[in-house]
Amino acid sequence: MAVKALKGFKDIIPGEVETWQFIEHTAREILHSFGCEEIKVPILEKTKLFKRSIGETTDIVEKEMYTFADRNGSSLTMRPEGTAPVLRAYIENSLHVAKPICKLFTIGPMFRHERPQKGRLRQFHQISVEMLGLDHPRQDAELMAMAALIIQRLGLTVSLEINSLGCPKCRPAFNKALLDFIGTIDDLCDDCLRRRESNPLRVLDCKNETCQEHYKDAPSILDHLCADCDSHFSEVKKGLDLLEVNYVVNSFMVRGLDYYTRTTFELITNDLGSQSAVGAGGRYDGLVKQLGGPAVPGIGFGMGMERLALLLQESGKAPQAKGIDLFIAALGDAAQERCFVICQAMRRQGLQVAMDLQDRSLKNQMKQAGKAKASYTLIMGEDELAQNRVVLRNMETREQQDITFTNDIENWCRELATVIN
Ligand SMILES: [Zn+2]
Ligand SMILES: [Zn+2]
């Protein structure tokens, strides 16, 4: 029996891959326009990197990481998210020295051992962006505007939900208010009981309906921000207003990861009737230092590519596969031989070219040209070969022209390429 792929691991095959290339291309273009530079980091890291950054008591670290011992017994983990590896690389390569404000992005697979369900894979792909070195509120607004622009440029709608999670100075007072409030509820779910001890903020994230009903009356973190966090959040909102980015404030939005401070946000699309989150991020001002680097602030986000690809496909906005520039139909051994050389020379001209190497009938070869959605077909049969010419057919207008063949193939192809382009 043939070996199948792992559960939760999926191939992206031709026909789908064009959508992925479109997403990557669009994202890269916008990221570059904001001064973000690409960084490629390893998929495998030491386990302690994620324990230290994401937090020991998070779902990711407790239940979801692909962690194993290598042949030397070191504990390794396949990255479950992009921020920690990028920050590790930023610190290790002292990138802050050359660029006090450093904007980095990476695109690639992440791994989490979650229960597979529709649209949720164990190997999933993210566009992950980190802006380091600046805690100015306009940086937050700019980053969110950039994330929204990527989604808009893909042809999807986007709305933004934002919140502030405060800082280590004001969070304890809110935690206390929240714990006092939780103390008045007697039917909390087990998850919330556990989180109450480890990370009280996260109870607000509970999906249990009974819990959610209670939390409607929970205190708001926005009422507990210190003066600095409060004015930072006001300036962030003002920045979004200036850039005309629509947002709603959701004071119950928290993040699953421990390291977030101040601005936090989710990107939501509405394209298929129901709301779905396509990305999320936030500020993490203490994280670089916590990982052994300089005390620089940072903000970032991750965008899920599977979700974007699905939205594009299901809403009919996915790009169609483009046809090739030229199909070469050669008939007979001598014409096949000459066209084999022409084919290669046309590719050197930068054109997408295909030919049938099996010398099948003209009818069959024209069918292949149609299937390949060729813009032009070049036909060389025995007659054409004898008369030192080829027939060039515009597949859209069906116009045909004779073109005399010369022995200077390179030059001849260069001229032919200008006709086709
Ligand atoms: Zn604060
Ligand atoms: Zn709960």
Give me the secondary-structure topology.
Elements: H1 17-33, E1 37-38, E2 44-46, H2 47-54, H3 59-64, E3 66-69, E4 75-78, H4 83-92, H5 95-98, E5 102-111, E6 123-132, H6 137-153, E7 159-164, H7 171-182, H8 190-198, H9 209-215, H10 227-242, E8 247-249, E9 261-272, E10 274-283, H11 287-290, E11 298-304, H12 305-314, E12 326-330, H13 333-348, E13 353-355, H14 362-371, E14 376-380, H15 382-386, E15 389-394, E16 400-404, H16 409-420
Parallel strand pairs: 1-5, 7-8, 12-13, 12-14
Antiparallel strand pairs: 2-4, 3-4, 5-6, 6-11, 7-9, 9-10, 10-11, 14-15, 15-16
Helix pairs in contact: 1-6, 6-10, 13-16
Bound molecules: zinc ion (ZN) (2 copies).
Describe it for me?
With 421 residues, the protein is an alpha+beta fold. The protein has two domains: 17-170 and 225-314, BirA Bifunctional Protein, domain 2 (2-Layer Sandwich); 326-420, Anticodon-binding domain (Rossmann fold), CATH 3.40.50. The protein is built from 16 helices and 16 strands. The strands form three sheets. An eight-stranded mixed sheet has the order 1-5-6-11-10-9-7-8, with helices on both faces. A five-stranded mixed sheet has the order 13-12-14-15-16, with helices on both faces. Strand 12 (326-330), helix 13 and strand 13 form a beta-alpha-beta unit. Helix 1 packs antiparallel against helix 6 (137-153), helix 6 (137-153) runs parallel beside helix 10 (227-242) and helix 13 (333-348) packs across helix 16 (409-420). The chain is elongated. The chain binds zinc ion (2 copies). One zinc ion (ZN) is lined by residues 166-167, 169-170, 225-226, 228-229.
